[in-house]
Design brief:
The complex is a heterodimer of chains A (519) and B (418). Chain A is mainly alpha-helical and 519 residues long. Chain A has 24 helices and eight strands. In chain A, β3 and β4 form a beta hairpin. The radius of gyration of chain A is 26 Å and the shape is globular. Classes of the chains: A mainly alpha (519), B alpha/beta (418).
Chain lengths: 519, 418
């Protein structure tokens, strides 16, 4: 009797837990509007979660094991396994690097900071705070400063791009593109006013990029003194305005009345090259107020961006145009995500897992999108079976075939050929002439498709029927009857050189659209 | 980052600037209707600012004239600086405008403003002339990219040149006149093998397209097609197989060899070819610098004119040569000339423009334009008209917002048009 009650309780408890999950609520909200989504089959699901949480694709053996697994909750187990794997932090760091820096360049300290954040599952508000008001003297945090310092680097004869930095803070942390409001009220977005841009602009324009010195191991920024409100004028109406440091749509931060020496914590001194440190730091004020539960756009922005990362579509699109006249496609879902994420203290790993658990994420007709360069690289070297060799070759030797390339060489070549141009939101990796020529003619691609001990072509050449292995290794699925026939007739037509024929067929698969999209 | 707004922000801004809902605004004439097969453009850009006084508009024996003499040209009464003896013999093919008066005297804004034609501040970045032509005339039948740029230094695709027209119309730059990376077939792959496996790739994609969104497959197919066409014409980058005489005639220097590649591009049917020569910003030692650089320009540009005429291409190719501004008549303390947008010259030839003609004049000291002054907007109108595009009626379509293709307060230079 007791046992039964305990059993019943346990059952109810787990059912209750499921119904209380965010994933369940999301699906309930979505299902009100759409018909039941057909779930993706095992192969599609497997490839999708690998690309999303590992950044690469599973090996043929891993795929076979997953297909053979009869456990009912194998998908949940796989999600949990991939999220717990060390690689998860690396993949998230890559995705957030591309999102936050938009191909402005690579920086090891920044990359290491991102990886450490995702490894420790640092809450998003803490990450945002570290990026917005970096502590450049703190070894664990100074990498975050790259977000600001890179954007303040001078390019040729152009002025330091303070408006660009201001714009990006709005875009990337609040999902609002205030660019037009630099000079006038937004012409098509009523919500965005010139004061919203100016309140942030005054804060960022007050920064000065400083070079690495004895105390600072990275470039850093000093802050000037702000003693009065920032004044602006509309180029359309000549109407003047002024604002203290202020979050968009928020209240102004009071500027303290201190003046002269009283205003400085450390006085600037030209002789000692001391940049000075004012008592009032508008940057810290903004960094405290922006990533906070009181600023609902902060949670909505990141929820929408993580949703986009995993599903290929934002609930609000463009991702940086949240405003009244651009309503979310599913307002209740975005509301829910924002609220729950806030309640969970901006725990991104939790949010990612919840989204991955939804039927919506696991559906068959998910949005197709091109992989980013980092995913393409990882998928490519995993498919060709060259991962280990490339990792070992830290000192490449062009004269030795097996030691010709390092992983870094491949990374550089893939990024050069496949990454989008700098300073554009990489919403979709676009195929280009460069990428087509790279796939078709480059030595990197050609090299990986030559038979070499233990790689894909070498392995396939030893099999009487290589179709399964080839399709599993490249496309994470088994070939259908037509595809089997196609491969067989290709191999018999090119029977004189089997490894060459296999290399060519693998090349066609690896250059095909199916390989370069997330399904 | 560009401080201007992005196109999408201003979708309806022109209407609201004009007071809203004006029905007289003609709908943009469809670009499709304008597409014409054979017209081409060669756009020679002398970056930094070539001195008009040491080239097209010499003022010998005057206060600011400098040390060089002037020489007669093939058109009676027209003189060039003595540094251009070869072009002087071809003046009858040229249309020189000596009355440019533009606005920006900084490189950073000038380069952009001149190449975008400055159609007033519309709040959106305007396309460079090359992108505008690529859009309005289309890629032509060659299958090659419509807007290519041959330049010293690095290459790559420059989407920003297209402004609001969108990345599709950006320039494909060939750094050092070299082909893009990985253009040639891999040495380990035979031509048959290459073709066979590429055909297989197409088959796989077609199969995939049947089950999925076609759009994604089409995007891939189009870049592979472009790659294919460029690979097939890899010869246009190779000047080594040309007769030695040709390579000598253009000059064995960067600009000469780049012009030779440009000629091959034009012959292959590329719609718009831009060639850049850097280093014309002679704030110091202006005269020695021009004495070195102008003859190279003279050599390559005149060889190009000869060849285009001989092959008949000059009939359908509009040739334009300019900088972001001219140079100050006043000679500074470093024996240099500084930036001078107030009074400078450009040269044109070929399709749609008059030839053997000088338009406008500067005063005796070369400091100001004496005749009617022309801003860059007038030149854009002139060029579009020369290409058969009515620049007062044809408009760009910026996501539903009609925008003029050239400054709407300006007119083409009538005398320049054939």
């Amino acid at each position: 009797m007791h046992r039964i009650i305990v059993g019943l309780l346990a059952l109810t408890a787990s059912a209750w837990a499921e119904q209380a999950s965010l994933a369940f609520s999301i699906d309930s909200a979505l299902l009100q509007k759409t018909k039941t989504a057909t779930p993706a089959d095992d192969a599609e699901f497997l490839r999708r979660v690998w690309l999303d949480f590992d950044g690469g694709i599973p090996t043929a053996a891993e795929a076979r094991a997953f297909f053979a697994d009869q456990t009912p909750d194998k998908r949940t187990k796989l999600i949990d396994k991939l999220i717990a794997a060390p690689r998860f932090a690396g993949r998230m760091a890559e995705a957030f690097h591309v999102m936050l820096m938009e191909r402005r360049g690579e920086n090891d300290v920044w990359k290491a900071w991102l990886v450490a954040c995702f490894k420790a599952n640092k809450p998003w508000d803490a990450m945002a705070r570290e990026m917005l008001a970096p502590d450049f003297l703190n070894e664990q945090q100074r990498g975050a400063g790259y977000f600001i310092t890179r954007r303040l680097e001078k390019v040729g004869q152009q002025d330091t791009d303070y408006p660009g930095l201001t714009r990006d803070v709005g875009r990337l942390f609040m999902g609002i593109d205030l660019q037009c409001c630099q000079c006038h009220r937004h012409l098509s977005v009523d919500d965005y006013k010139q004061i919203d841009f100016s309140g942030l602009f005054g804060v960022f324009q007050n920064l000065k990029l400083q070079a690495t010195d004895g105390k600072h191991k990275t470039p850093w920024v000093s802050e000037g003194l702000i003693a009065s409100k920032y004044e602006f004028v509309s180029v359309l109406t000549d109407k003047k305005g002024q604002t203290a440091p202020r979050l968009p749509f928020g209240a102004e931060v009071m500027i303290p009345a201190d003046s002269g020496d009283d205003a400085w914590l450390v006085k600037p001194d030209r002789k000692t090259k001391e940049a000075g440190q004012p008592k009032f730091s508008p940057l810290r004020e903004i960094a405290m107020r922006l990533p906070a539960p009181e600023n609902p756009l902060f949670a909505k922005n990141i929820a929408n961006r993580v949703w986009w990362l995993l599903t290929g579509k934002g609930i609000v699109e463009p991702l940086d145009l949240h405003h009244t006249d651009n309503p979310p496609t599913h307002p209740e879902v975005l509301e829910l995500l924002g609220k729950e994420l806030t309640a969970h203290h901006f725990d991104l790993r939790w949010l990612i897992r919840e989204i991955a658990m939804t039927k919506h994420y696991q559906r068959a007709d998910a949005t197709q999108r091109h992989l980013i360069a980092e995913q393409q690289l990882r998928a490519f070297i995993s498919a060709t079976g060259e991962q280990t060799r490339l990792e070992i070759n830290t000192q490449p030797d062009v004269n030795v075939d097996a030691a010709k390339y390092s992983r870094a060489d491949f990374q550089k070549a893939f990024a050069a050929a496949l990454a989008n141009p700098a300073k554009e939101p990489e919403l979709a990796a676009n195929p280009s002439l460069r990428s087509a020529l790279f796939l078709r003619n480059s030595d990197h691609v050609q090299w990986a498709l030559k038979p070499r001990a233990g790689n894909l072509i070498d392995r396939l050449a030893q099999q009487a029927d290589p179709a399964d292995d080839l399709y599993l290794s490249t496309l994470t699925r088994l070939p259908d009857a037509g595809e089997r026939k196609q491969l067989a007739s290709w191999l018999s037509a090119h029977a004189t050189d089997k490894t060459k024929a296999l290399g060519d067929f693998a090349w066609a698969l690896l250059s095909s659209t199916e390989f370069f999209v997330n399904h | 980052m560009n401080p201007l707004c992005t196109p999408r922000d201003h979708t309806f801004s022109r209407r609201s600037f004009l007071g809203g809902g004006l029905s007289w605004l003609a709908s943009p004439v469809l670009a499709e209707a304008m597409k014409q097969k054979d017209k081409q453009v060669l756009f020679v850009w002398l970056d930094g600012g070539m001195s008009q006084l040491e080239t097209w508009d010499p003022k010998p024996n005057t206060e600011f004239g400098g040390p060089f003499r002037s020489i007669k040209t093939s058109v009676p009464g027209v003189h060039f600086c003595e540094l251009m003896p070869k072009l002087a013999k071809q003046m009858h093919k040229l249309c020189v405008v000596r009355s440019l008066c533009t606005k920006d005297n900084a490189h950073s804004s000038g380069v952009d403003r001149i190449q975008r034609g400055d159609p007033k501040n519309r709040g959106v970045p305007y396309p460079h002339f090359g992108a505008g032509v690529a859009k309005l005339l289309g890629p032509g039948s060659s299958g090659l990219p419509p807007y290519v740029w041959i330049k010293p230094g690095s290459g790559g695709f420059r989407a920003e040149d297209a402004g609001f027209l969108g990345p599709k119309y950006g320039s494909l730059a060939f750094g050092d006149g070299k082909p893009p990376e990985n253009l040639l077939r891999h040495p380990d792959i035979s031509a048959d093998q290459d073709a066979a496996r590429n055909e297989l790739r197409q088959m796989l994609d077609q199969r995939f397209a049947k089950q999925r969104e076609k759009r994604v497959v089409e995007a891939n197919a189009s870049v592979f097609d472009m790659a294919e066409k460029l690979m097939a014409r890899a010869d246009i980058f190779d000047t080594t197989k040309l007769p030695e005489r040709d390579r000598d005639r253009y000059g064995r220097h960067d600009f000469g060899q780049h012009m030779l590649v440009a000629r091959q591009m034009l012959e292959a049917g590329v719609r718009f070819v831009k060639v850049t020569s850097y280093g014309w910003d002679t704030h110091g030692d202006n005269f020695n610098a021009h004495a070195t650089m102008v003859p190279k320009f003279d050599q390559a540009f005149s060889a190009m004119l000869e060849d285009l005429e001989a092959s008949g291409l000059l009939k359908n190719t509009l040739v334009i040569c300019l900088s972001e501004f001219g140079r100050t008549p006043r000679i500074n303390g470093h024996v240099g000339r500084d930036h001078w947008p107030e009074a400078w010259s450009i040269a044109m030839a070929g399709h749609g423009v008059n030839h053997g003609l000088v338009i406008g004049e500067t005063n005796a000291r070369g400091t100001e334009v004496k005749s009617q002054a022309h801003d860059i907007g007038a030149l854009f109108h002139t060029w579009y008209h020369a290409l058969g595009i009515d620049s007062h009626h044809v408009e760009f379509d910026n996501a539903g917002q009609p925008l003029p293709i050239a400054h709407d307060d300006m007119l083409p230079i009538k005398e320049a048009l054939a």
